[in-house]
């Protein structure tokens, strides 16, 4: 059994233990190369690498090279160091004939193997590789960005092997296929593409793999960074691939006919293709009664409208359209704005920027201090701004409502994009009033209609319209009605639920 085979079948270990289940796979078959496989050549490659350990055993003429912080010392000592150190020269051939030792003949592969956590054993004119990967890694914990009240509380980690095991635990099927790719000329980051054969559209899978192979970059560090290299429209403000840290969400996308991309070193897993409305769905929707899930989802769409338009409407009405203000409110508004020296658009932009500064400061500071800054800073600055005559009471309410509404959207990436759009609508409302606001909204809708995700419609199932898919978009219908997979994935197996109503 090869190292790669052992890797794929080593996921039965508990994920919260120190992982030994991932390494960059190494092919050890003969390769055509003009470079000689010698100890001196390999040591020259690791010149000035103080973290590379070289042990020489003169009695039996064996040299062992490995990186200490990349290997499992207990396994290496038990299966390599001790047997070889206590062996005679004639016994070494018997030891190296075991399947756990593989012969390597390509210097480049030997160097890559050592960098990937394997031990290279030199004996006479042969080099043997031993799978000993086992660095320290973060254990499986709860996601901090996608919290739920009910349902599983585990999340992906920075170790790709653990992430694969979390998916395999939930999808115990041989139809779940895993493709290994490599991205980054310098970092050689491993990317695993997952899909379910017979459900996923193979044309979309091939396109997804083609785009990943087409990435030409020195380094990729995170799934969020990785997704931007395969976007259909890289200059758009809207994310075109869903990023999740929850295994249950990732598996639901797989079963729904989508693909996943697991980037080694990142807890962010990329799902493709993705529709705009997927960013308003949460795992919580499916763990509660359908009526509660529907009400919560509709609340998110209402929050979306509030967060992009509420402050802009205030600017538009107070600048050009006083006739739209109810008579009972106009006197209060006039009194509130009587001491403000700025026009509404400047006033609104000032408060929106202040809110964003508080939000960013709260995110960057330690957790306890960040919460204090966000709450106390918002109250103190808002009250002081009103008393100083820099802003009106009603604008504080509008800005606070918009900020709170942005937090209702489950996806942080989408929430950040929406917050940026809000500034553009405020400027348009300040220049052209309601006409500018409607012009901005129309531009957003037209832009969304033109976006695609992996070649599929970004506004699916709204455009093109697929009425049967609406049962899991704007509402969360009962499970007995969710019988088909989304039309966006173009699956040959659209039926997913055969339960009786």
From TrEMBL:
Entry annotated with the keyword Cytoplasm: no
Domain of life, source organism: Bacteria
Keywords attached to this entry: Membrane, Transmembrane, Transmembrane helix
Transmembrane segment boundaries: 298-320, 394-413, 425-448
InterPro entries, alphabetized: Spore_Ger, UPF0353/GerABKA_families
One Pfam family cited in the UniProt record for this chain: GerA
Record bears the keyword Transmembrane helix: yes
Similarity comment text for this entry: Belongs to the GerABKA family.
PANTHER family on file: LEUCINE ZIPPER PROTEIN 4, SPORE GERMINATION PROTEIN
Name under which the protein is recorded: GerA spore germination protein
Annotated source species: Paenibacillus qinlingensis
